[in-house]
Amino acid sequence: MRHETLHRSKLTAKDRERLINQYVREVYGEETEVPSYETLRVVWKEWFGSSGARQRYARSAARAKEVATGRHVVVSRPGQVVALETTVLPVKVRENVFGDPVSVHLTLALDVYTHSIVAFRLTLISDTSVDVAMILRDVMMPLPMRPDWGEEMEWAYPGVPGTVIAGFTGGKVASLPFFAPETVTTDHGSVYKNHHLIEVQRVIGANIRPSRVLRPTDKQAVERAFGAIQSLLFRILPGYQGIDTADRGVDPEGDACITVAEMEHLIATWIVRIWQNRSFGSYGPSWDPSGDHSPNSLFAASMAQGGFALQIPPPELYYQLLPTHRVMIHGRRGVKVKNLWYDGPALREWRFRGSGRGGTSKNKYVVHRDPRDPCFVYFQDPQTHEWHQLRWVGLPEEGRIPAFSDARVRQVMRELRIRGLSPKSDKDLLPLLLDLIGGNVPVEQWPTRLTKAQRLEHAREEAQAAAAAADRPEMLPADEEELARVPRQGGESDNVVDLRWRQRAAQGHAAIDEERRRRREEASEEVPVPSTLGQRLRGASLMELLDEDNDTATERGEQP
Question: What tens digit of pLDDT does each residue of 362-412 get?
């Protein structure tokens, strides 16, 4: 009857008692006595537990119990298991473009052994596979010291001096563990179930495994960390929304006064200064449950027991973790990725040569692209293995344009299909792209003319471009001369507190003027020379005296 009730919809104890009576009567005869309802209810609860769970969850729990091995994974070293979790930040913050109050997503990477928060990210939209790849890259890299951090926050773990790590990184690092993760535990979100994450785990050599359904023990450490951060930090910040709408303040959006950049800096400072030195109390390690330990002391003890592998990934890891595209190299136009053409001097040698690949990727080359900043793609030379940056051919030669995302490119293509246009080159897309970025209104009037959803869209594009610029390594040596006149697109990598909508509007004006100037120069063979007002009046005046050369030519009957 247990298997039958799992197969059917949810039944009450009285329904199960009736089915048991029917089964006994038909199988063993009517003479067989059946225990009373109360006896069956008590025995059922003793054997199978309470029946208060939903039917779907009861079936999954029964299947998990059938395949259970009875063995448990014992975490014994840092990096063995890293738990990832994303949640909405319970504090309203203000974005850095228009200053509107918004909700951001907080992603944490927690080392299960030491309970160290080894990496975190704030995103204006729900995290994507690129954000997950970058946070795994942050787990493997040391955290640089920030200008307002004191000496007590520097690297002070015994065994590896801070000067040694500073020699590899080029600067002082904070007291926060870093390592190559072995197993990464995630939830069942779609962001963790795609081909990009499969390639990421191959590159970093880790196993990305989703947690078991209805098994909170798989990620209880990171869930508990979220609750601790909320009680220790978020509740006392202005703009806190509470855990329920009934407990919410009068106006959390109006109380919000912290920007996204300030919140990121506040969380980073709190993690290094407070969380890493916070005592576990009753949650100490199994080998010393009565001792006084913190995440920093556990990491120092593990270094003394098993050593520390000082492996700092190279800057090229950023390009390897980006999504890949297999494309053909066109002889004149370069490579086409997501409806945009990219070109650069690095493709000069490979334009008319096959890649040697076969199958569905026959004679195709691999390029890497950051969806947060479509202005560039990255190409690795098959012979020298050097990475090169390819520019979108629609970018102006000088100046800068406002940041845009993949969603904006899809909007441009949709607008072209509606208008029935088929541009001949990507440079024809730039005016329409700038028109859509401007929202069809004067850019000086953005804060008053655009809707809240449109302002949030512009803020997301700026935030994504700023995150991509912060993750991107320094300019590649092979492309410095080619890209020296083109400044980095998107937002700045440093923490900018002031509003940037005027800067974004100025970028739009400059890009539009540059595009108009380029079209005028292409339309006329001679470049127009600017003239002053006096020169124009002198050239058009009828009272102007002729020069001596013109007088001589007139006397000879020649045309001056």
Answer: 889 999 999 888 888 999 999 899 999 998 887 776 556 667 777 777 777
Three-class SS state of 218: helix
387 bridge partner residues = 380
Within 10 angstroms of residue 365's Cβ, the number of other Cβ atoms is: 21
Task: Give the whole-angstrom CA distance, residue 436 versus residue 408.
Answer: 8
Same domain, 96 and 230: yes
Contact 261, 497 (CB under 8 A): yes
Residue 532 within a domain: no
Same domain, 9 and 61: yes
Cα distance between residue 510 and residue 382, in whole Å: 38
Which CATH number fits the domain that encloses residue 111?
A: 3.30.420.10
- With vertex at residue 311, the alpha carbon angle to CA 307 and CA 313, rounded to the nearest 5 degrees, is 160
Amino acid sitting at position 365: Y
pLDDT band (50, 70, 90) for residue 264: very high
Tokens at 474, concatenated: 């320094």
Question: Cα–Cα distance between 388 and 480 in angstroms, integer?
Answer: 10
Same domain? For 104 and 202 the reply is yes
Evaluated on CA atoms 71, 189, 240, 269, the torsion sign reads positive
Instruction: Specify the pTM.
Output: 0.73
The phi and psi torsions of 537 (rounded to 5 degrees) equal -65, -40
Q: Provide the number of structural domains found in the chain.
A: 3
Rounded (10°) angle between helices 129-140 and 452-471:
40
- Domain check: are 164 and 288 in the same one? yes
The predicted-structure confidence for 34-84, as pLDDT tens digits, reads as follows: 999 999 999 999 988 887 888 888 887 787 777 766 667 778 889 999 999
- Say if residue 239 is in the same domain as residue 358: no
Same domain flag for 10 and 154 = no
Tell me the torsion sign for CA atoms 440, 443, 449, 453: positive
106 and 192 together in one domain: yes
